[in-house]
Amino acid sequence: MMRAALLHACGAAPAVGDRAVPVPAGDEILVRVTAASITPLDLLCASGTSYFGVPATPYVPGVQGVGVRDDGTAVWFPTSAGMRPGDGSLAEYAAVRAADTVALPDGIDHRLIAALGLSAVAAQLALTWRGELRPGERVLVLGAGGVVGQAAVRLALLAGAGTVIAAARSAAARQRAAQAGAAVVVPLEDGDDVARLAARLQAAADGPVDLVLDPLFGIPAAAALRTLRPGGRLVNLGSAAGETAPLDSATLRSGSLRILGYTNNELTPARRAEALTLIAAHAAAGRLTVDHETVRLHDIATAWHRTDRRIVVTP
To answer: What is the pLDDT of residue 230?
Structure first.
C-alpha cells in the first residue's frame, strides 16, 4: 500500500488515505514520486465541470509530476487523471507511460520542475511555436504574475525578445512579473474598460509591440490588441478574465492582426518533451524559476484551493 491524495467527491478537497501501489500496464513504468504540483487543470477536473466530464471517484488527482525510475533516473511525467479513468501524481507512486516520461538533468530541483511543468511548456511553445517569436521583438505578457506569465516573461527574454512588458493584477503578482525580468509592469485594475486599459498599456509600451501572450482573454485581451503593430500576433492560452472578449472589428482589420489559439493538448509527446528538456536546462542553469511553495502530502486538504502561488506537494 501507499499514501495518496484521494478525491472522494467532485468539488471537495482530497484527503490522504491508503491506496494500492499501481501495477504498470505493458507500456507503463512505475515511478516513485518526489514532487507534484496542484495546477488549475487539477482543480477544474476535480470540480466535475470540465469538458472532460465528471471523473469517477475516488481517484488520485495530479496531471503531472516528477519522480525516479527504478534505475535511478529522474523524470518528469504527465498523467490523464481527472480526464480519463486512472490515478495521477499526488501519491507516493505513479504508473505512467514510459514513452511520455522526460529524463531530467542530474541534481536538478524536482520541486522547481514540478512547479514549472506544463505551465512553462505552454509559455515556451505559445511564444515560439505558435507565436513565432523572433529575436529583438517586443512582447506583452498578460497575467504575468501567474506561473504561465512568470515563465513567459523569462522565456521570452531567453528566446531573444528585445523588451518584455507585463500586466498583472495584485501588487504581489506585479512584483513577481518584475522579478521575472519585465521592463515595466502595468496594473490590471477592477473596473477597467478596454479604452482605459489600452491607454495604460500603450503608454507603458512606448511603442507598438509585436506579440501578446494572453492567458486571460476578456477585457485585457481586447485592450492588448490595440498595442500591436500592423501584422502583430496575440496568442491566447486561457480565459482567466472571461470566456468572451469585447473585440472590435476595426482594430483587427486596420492592423491586419492575428489572433491565435494555443493548447498543450495539441502537442505530440516529442514536441512536449523537447520543450520540457529546454525548460529543465534553463532551470538547472539558474535561468528560469517561478514562485512556488512546498507542502507535504498530509497537508493536501488545506493546500488544495490555494491560489496565491503554485503549490508543490512532496510525499
So the answer is: 98
CA distances from 236 to 133, 167, 217, 313 (A): 14, 15, 7, 29
Q: Which helix (H) or strand (E) holds 35?
A: strand 28-38
- Architecture of the domain delimited by 118-264: Alpha-Beta Complex (3.90)
Which residues neighbour 217 within 8 Å (Cβ) at sequence distance 6 or greater?
A: 236, 238, 239, 240, 241, 242, 243, 244, 245
The beta-strand segments (E) located in 47-145 are: 64-68, 74-78, 93-97, 102-103, 138-142
DSSP state of 204: H
- Are domains 2-103+289-314 and 118-264 of this chain identical in fold? yes
Q: How many CB atoms sit inside 10 A of residue 22's CB?
A: 19
Read off the pLDDT band of 209 (50, 70, 90): very high
Pick 2-103+289-314's CATH classification: 3.30.1490.20, 3.30.540.10, 1.10.3880.10, 3.90.180.10: 3.90.180.10
Write down the pLDDT at residue 62.
98
DSSP letters, 267-282, are --HHHHHHHHHHHHHH
Give this prediction's pTM: 0.95
Give, in order, the Cα–Cα distances in Å from 244 to each of 127, 220, 221, 232, 236: 22, 11, 10, 21, 12
**Residue 288: what pLDDT?**
98
DSSP-assigned beta bridge partners for residue 293: 311
